[in-house]
Amino acid sequence: QVQLIESGGGLVQTGGSLRLSCVASGRTFINYFMGWYRQAPGKERELVARISGSRVSTTQADSVKGRFAISRDNAKNSIYLYMNNLKPEDTAVYYCHADQYWGQGTQVTVSS
After folding, report:
1. Which among 48, 46, 24 has a CA at the least distance from the CA of 100?
2. Which residues pair with 58 in a beta bridge?
3. 58-87: pLDDT as tens digits
4. Pairing of strands 78-83, 92-98
5. How far apart are CA 78 and CA 76, in angstroms?
6. Which residue of 2, 9, 53, 97 pairs with 26 in a disulfide if CB–CB is 3.0 to 4.6 A?
7. Phi, psi for residue 2 in degrees, rounded to 5
8. pLDDT, tens only, 48-66
9. Which residues pair with 7 in a beta bridge?
10. Cα distances (Å, whole numbers) of residue 8 to 28, 37, 82, 103
11. How confident is the model at residue 104 (pLDDT cuts 50, 70, 90)?
12. Rounded CA separation 12/45 (Å)
């Protein structure tokens, strides 16, 4: 059974930082992009950042450039999202994604 398990969400004040982790089990995704998406209440799910299997290629949403960074550890079948200078508009459920699979999501709440 393939699973993507996220962790690291929580409540933080504006300007704070969090690190999200996603561990994949059941198969490897070394030949696939892995990424983070988020969905705020009443809004569509959107791409936050993604990274290729080789870690050479990354993509980030304009809204998080300069504040968020994505990394990947293929030995651990994991990806990470480093979120700095968090803003209230970053409040959302953050989902890990790889191939056709989604994690269950982790809540990030940024208080003003």
Report:
1. 24
2. 51
3. 999 999 999 999 999 999 999 999 999 999
4. unpaired
5. 5
6. 2
7. -85, 130
8. 999 999 999 999 999 999 9
9. 21
10. 22, 15, 10, 13
11. very high
12. 21
Average pLDDT, the chain: 97
Q: Rounded to an integer, what distance in angstroms lies between the CA atom of residue 1 and that of residue 94?
A: 22
Token pair of 74 as six digits: 């293929």
Q: Are 4 and 24 in contact (CB under 8 A)?
A: yes
Residue 8 per-residue DSSP state = -
What is the dihedral sign for C-alpha 87, 33, 20, 40? positive
Query: Nearest-CA neighbor of 37 among 82, 96, 99, 108?
Result: 96
Alpha carbon 82 to chain centroid, angstroms: 8
**Identity of residue 74:** N
Q: How far apart are CA 58 and CA 104, in angstroms?
A: 23
Please give the structure tokens belonging to residue 44: 């569509």
**3-state SS class at 19:** strand
Residue 25, token pair as written in the block: 């089990």
Structure tokens at 42: 């009443």
